[in-house]
Specification:
about 60% helix, mainly alpha, disordered C terminus, about 220 residues, binds iron/sulfur cluster
Amino acid sequence: MTARCRGMEDEAVCSFCRLKGALLCHIEPGQVGLFVISQIPYLGLALISLGFVGAATRTWWPMAAFAAVGLAFLGPVEMRFLCSHCPHYAREGRWLKCMAPNPFPKLFRPRPGPMKSHERIIIAAFAGFILSFPAFSLAGAIRSLPVQQQGLNPSLLLAAAVLEGALILSAVQFCYHLTRSFCRRCLNLSCPFNRVPATAALEYLKMSGETNDAGEEQSRN
Ligand code: SF4
Ligand code: SF4
């Protein structure tokens, strides 16, 4: 896992730390709520879009695939390939305690060292699927609608197009918010989406007892 600072267990250590507030070493009030709320527009619109696809084309496998991949990501995939490397994961207890609430208990042991290349690829692939699949499915349904429905009501097509636009905008908003509010402060320094400035990452690794070189390598490996 990314190195762990002693201040994560004993907050008194954090009092004079320059990184206090810059990194999400401890759960801050409102942070969990903000994390959840920021995802609701995209996930809500994704489910509405896939419901539209199912109702309009009588094809429900996209909804089932999205739900299955989303659950797999939230549970075993994210926990095994991403979170098990994170300092938060190494906290005591069966449940993950960080800004991203997870309904699953810890399923794997903590893994020392940064994420490996294949783990980053898996996480990026799942994230890419979750963020793009609903929009592609809806676009496919819009294209097939006139063929499937004789005398199609134009307002249905308009509604689908508006939904597609809102879905894409909400995906952009989701990524923007996640990157700005969380990825810039996240302790999982080897995550492919981590955006902690190099100086802060290095400082954190020094606080964790890492050497400069090892820290530099670990933070961005
Ligand atoms: S780096 Fe360590 S001491 Fe500084 S705020 Fe984070 S946990 Fe506390
Ligand atoms: S901060 Fe991110 S990587 Fe770390 S345990 Fe929480 S969800 Fe997983």
